[in-house]
Amino acid sequence: MSAYSSDQNLNVADVTGNGVEVDVATDLLDGTVRLSLLWADEIHLTPDGADRVAQALLRAAEEGRRCAAEARTRKGA
User: pTM for this structure?
Assistant: First the structure.
C-alpha cells in the first residue's frame, strides 16, 4: 500500500507544448520519493522549470526523511 502526496507547488510542463508534466511525490508511509513524467519518457525544461523541479525534489526529500523516521518510530513502539 502507498499513500503518495504530490508537491502541489510544482507546476512544470514541457517547453515544446506537448502536454508533458512533472510530478514529484512523497510516500507518506515509508518516505520514498517518486519523480514522474506524465504522458512521456522525457521532458524539455526551461532553466527556471528545472530549478522548480530541483526545489520540489529537495522538499520531497525532507518530507521523506520525516516520514521514514515516523515509520521507524511506529515499528519500534
Answer: 0.81
